[in-house]
Design goal:
Layout lengths: L1 E4 L10 E4 L9 E11 L1 H8 L17 E9 L11 E4 L14 E5 L3 E3 L6 H4 L3 H11 L18 E5 L4 H12 L3 E6 L2 H10 L3 E4 L5 H8 L4 E6 L2 H11 E9 L11 H5 L4 E4 L7 H16 L13 E5 L3 H9 L5 E5 L4
Parallel strand pairs: 8-9, 8-11, 9-10, 11-12, 12-13, 14-15
Antiparallel strand pairs: 1-2, 3-4, 3-6, 3-15, 4-5, 5-7
Helix pairs in contact: 1-10, 3-4, 3-9, 6-7
The chain binds NADP nicotinamide-adenine-dinucleotide phosphate (NAP).
């Protein structure tokens, strides 16, 4: 079968298309015939060596954590009825060499979650990193839910920075479904339209508007949770618009060092939370998977169509180009079409 592999970290051309052996399932594993491999910033960062802690952990790595497809075989201990099930894939290549940029991939059974009837493979390949991260951020409020569901965030006001980003967009969809009032920041009218379609109640253009004043006027009692993609740039405004005991969920970095004013954060008991999806507690990961599955069943996580992020399709042979598109910050979801399932 065909697989994309890399044997050293580096620029996109370390990615090579190879003929490799078909995987067979070990105990507790499933084999998935991949329909789409979803690309996220983490995939090019891992490939480039930007986030690797040293040399590659394995002699050869197939990139990309997210994906979707159909289970074709199961290993010992896995319900044989899973064969034929349509699934979405999370963390295929975390501490494992075998991501989704290949025709078939072997995974621990729980990394392949059932995709509800009617939910497309395109959606399935878009939820792993973005929606699980958004779920974690949205469930960090002290007095808030740990698992999202319809209505679970009623009465909460959420600020999602970068509402047309993959994580931001998923966060708006989840928060809106959960009943929160959603404010988002964007940098253009086109991104404002995408955020509105996802369910944002208030849009602030951070390039042309005074974000602090706008949000203070919208959320007179303050914001409960901020989802932060650019903490160095936004921390001061976040601090001002948060209500006492409010939470800033920081899931990305826009530099190395963050300066936090101590007394001004202490007085209102602000919560600064940092998120790295790979290493959140196991229970929180399970909660996120449960919440995302509920949202999928309620058909709230959209991509493409008129209310989802635009889709950009590549072939397995174009995996380098797919990584480059994500690295350049393309608006929308980058999907590699692997098989016609
Ligand atoms: N810690 C984790 O576990 C975790 C999980 C997922 C993602 N991440 C990281 O989170 C980042 C975003 O991931 P993604 O997949 O959502 O990427 P993406 O689709 O490229 O979205 C990033 C968004 O952030 C917006 N943005 C940039 N600067 C901003 C600012 N100052 N204020 C408001 N919005 C701003 C961008 O739009 P404009 O530039 O037009 O504003 C863009 O829409 C990446 O660095 C990724 O590696 C981390």
């Amino acid at each position: 079968m065909k697989a994309v592999v890399y044997e050293r970290t580096g620029p996109p051309d370390v990615l090579q298309v190879r003929e490799v052996e078909m995987p067979s399932p070990k105990k507790g594993e499933v084999i998935v015939k991949v329909a789409f491999s979803g690309v996220n910033p983490t995939d090019w960062k891992l490939r480039s060596g930007l986030t690797a802690l040293g040399p590659l952990q394995f002699p050869q790595v197939v990139p990309n954590q997210d994906g979707s497809g159909t289970i074709t075989a199961v290993g010992e201990g896995v319900d044989p009825n899973r064969v034929g099930q349509r699934v979405w894939i999370w963390e295929a290549a975390h501490q494992r060499p075998s991501g989704t940029a290949q025709e078939f991939t072997a995974l621990p059974s729980d990394h392949a979650q059932e995709l509800p009837d009617g939910v497309s493979f395109e959606v399935g390949a878009s939820v792993g990193v973005p929606a699980l991260t958004a779920h974690r951020c949205l469930t960090l409020a002290e007095n808030g839910p740990r698992i999202l569901d319809k209505g679970a965030l009623e009465g909460f006001t959420v600020l999602v920075h970068g509402g047309a980003g993959a994580v931001g967009h998923a966060a708006i969809q989840l928060a809106h479904w959960a009943g929160a009032r959603v404010i988002t920041t964007v940098s253009s009218p086109e991104k404002a339209a995408l955020a509105t379609a996802a369910g944002a109640d208030h849009i602030v253009n951070y390039k042309t508007q005074d974000v602090t004043n706008e949000i203070s006027a919208i959320a007179k009692n303050g914001v409960d949770i901020v989802l932060e993609v650019a903490p160095i740039k936004n921390l001061e405004l976040d601090r001002v618009i948060l209500r006492p005991n409010g939470t800033i969920a920081i899931y990305a970095n826009d530099g190395d060092q963050l300066t936090i004013p101590i007394r001004a954060s202490m007085a209102p008991n602000l919560n600064y939370r940092f998120i790295m999806l790979y290493t959140i507690p196991t229970e929180a990961k399970q909660h996120a998977i449960t919440g995302v599955n509920k949202a999928l069943r309620d058909d709230v996580l959209k991509v493409g169509e008129e209310n989802g992020l635009p889709l950009h399709f590549f072939t397995l042979d174009q995996t380098r180009e797919a990584h480059i598109a994500v690295e350049k910050g393309i608006t929308g979801k980058v999907l590699i079409k692997v098989n016609d399932n």
